[in-house]
Write a structure and sequence with these properties.
With about 325 residues, the protein is α/β, with parallel strands linked by helices. It is built from 8 helices and 15 strands.
């Protein structure tokens, strides 16, 4: 029997998602502030209809959450998550940590792969529902926010069993000289860049090698290469290790929205659960889920390890199936 409770939901929105430099070099869609406010309002309306008692909201310098909440009397209590207010990745991570401390039962995050990676790093097993508002969206889902809000509300109120409506998404753990450094939900790439720059990668010729999780559906970005390389296999590996360059084959792939390129692949090898891949020593940047984050030198040893149980992801379809099932 499902037991109801008055659990709470956290809403985390990245105001900068979907606005990076790739829009200057590719016809990627722009998710405007008005779009994000509309998504937030639809989530809030669903949570209100389900009588969730409390909603924790991440404040942002663009005032998106405040504008979404304005103009209506909500039945739930609104509380604000603690952030440093630096308009950086620190805000997203701090908000997620605070949401976990406050005991929320589900985290709804608006952003692309980069945003969702930050939330997953701090979620500590709390179910997360990732909604696409970024440039590359291999991890988050494209779904109407009303449905997302209903699913989150059912979980918050204990009306569906968490184990039944969630699944684990794998992650890639990165170590530098034997010390844990970072993690990714989609891919880890070693690039030829010597600075992180604008972070977002938009020139595939800068890739040296990558470890890429094999996606379940067609996606844009490095995931499209993985699917092209192993998609015809009867039992594809959970990830692939790719070295870029001449000497192998070329793969025609959508490397960014509206940008298709013939990418030269020098070498490909499967990566299985628990396996550790050592990247070739070289100066450059490490990029996680499409964003350059760390400069490394040829003297540093970089390894990538695949873990089956990464982020705990809420499955909206399973939520609707569970919520409509007869009690008992």
């Amino acid at each position: 029997m499902k037991l109801a409770c008055d659990g709470s939901v956290a809403l985390i929105v990245n105001p900068q998602a979907g606005k990076d430099v790739r829009r200057l070099v590719a016809p990627a869609p722009i998710v405007t502030d008005i779009d994000k406010i509309g998504i937030l309002r639809r989530i809030l309306a669903a949570l209100d209809a389900l009588a969730v008692s409390r909603v924790w909201v991440m404040p942002d310098l663009g005032g998106l959450a405040e504008r979404a909440l304005a103009g209506r009397r909500w039945r739930f209590e609104v509380r604000w998550l603690a952030i440093p207010g630096l308009a950086s990745a620190d805000d997203t991570q701090a908000a997620t940590r605070d949401a976990v401390r406050q005991g929320v039962r589900v985290i709804v995050a608006l952003g692309g792969d980069g945003t969702q990676r930050l939330v997953a790093k701090e979620a500590a097993g709390v179910p997360m529902l990732a909604i696409s508002t970024g440039t590359n969206n291999a991890f988050p889902v494209m779904i109407d926010a009303t449905l997302a809000g209903m699913a989150a509300g059912w979980v918050a109120k204990g009306q569906v069993e968490v184990a039944r409506v969630t699944r684990f998404h794998p992650r890639l753990e990165v170590a530098i000289d034997g010390q844990a450094a970072d993690s990714a939900l989609v891919d880890v790439a070693a690039t030829r860049d010597l600075v992180t720059g604008s972070r977002a990668i938009y020139d595939w010729r800068m890739w040296r090698e990558a470890v890429i999780l094999t996606p379940q559906i067609p996606v844009v970005g490095l995931g499209s290469l993985a699917l092209a390389l192993v998609g015809a296999m009867a039992d594809p590996p959970p990830a692939v290790h790719v070295r870029f360059g001449d000497g192998g084959r070329q793969v025609l792939a959508p490397i960014a929205p509206g940008m298709v390129a013939a990418v030269p692949i020098a070498e490909t090898s499967p990566v299985f659960w628990g396996e550790t891949v050592a990247l070739q020593p070289a100066a450059g940047c490490l990029a996680f889920d499409g964003e350059r984050e760390q400069v490394v030198s040829p003297r540093q040893r970089v390894t990538v390890h695949e873990v089956a149980e990464g982020a705990r992801v809420l499955d909206v379809r399973r939520c609707f199936q569970a919520a409509s099932a007869p009690p008992g």
